[in-house]
Amino acid sequence: MSHVVPLIADPYDRWLNAIVVSALLVMTEWCYFVAALAPLPSPSREYYLDALTTLKTGCCRERLNELCKRHIESSDLQVKQLHENGNVRYCETCQCIRPDKSHHCTECGICILRCDHHCVLMGCCIHQDNLKAFILYLVWGLLYSTLAFITDFNFTYFNAPEDRGPFWYTISISYLMCTQLAIWPMVIYSYLIPMNLAFRDRWHQRCPFDNLGWRKNLRRG
Fold first, then answer.
1. Closest to 55 in 3D by CA, of 66, 43, 44, 64
2. pTM for the predicted model, two decimal places
3. Per the similarity annotation, which family is this (predicted)?
4. Which of 14, 182, 189, 220 could form a disulfide with 128 if both were Cys (CB 3.0 to 4.6 A apart)?
């Protein structure tokens, strides 16, 4: 946009685009850093088993499952989500019982509460504490790339006084690609959040575990 705004003839239109687009860019970057720098929420100490007790079970999953069930009852843990075979969701890497909607991220190396997915763009997991910032990042990014594309496309294709070469057309296409990349996640999450589903879950049924309603699920962060 810095290559287009100074060339807009109308001063009102020029300043409007400069201020609005810059504000949208600032909000996009702010939400990005808030989501990327959010601490990873891990299960509390009550969900972890004693290492020595775990070693005594050996490789017997039946004994380990019984141990997990006794630990849940004795510690009064609220765990409802189980494996399909009825066993407790236990993480052998972290040696802890997984709370509802939590998953172990191999990239981050720990179990994360309400882990949605590991975002390569941000280099971290999207979880209960940064999901709202991630959604806002998509919203502001969509608005920024859309307005930037409209302004750049309108100037390059209709108002440019001369042909400035293929580089300018490439910039317009890049804004359009960013718009498309932001639209599809917004469509997906508009379906997942009301269903209390994470990106890694199966999408064919509503998840009843740890469901506070779509507004509170989004406001956890």
1. 64
2. 0.80
3. Belongs to the DHHC palmitoyltransferase family.
4. 220
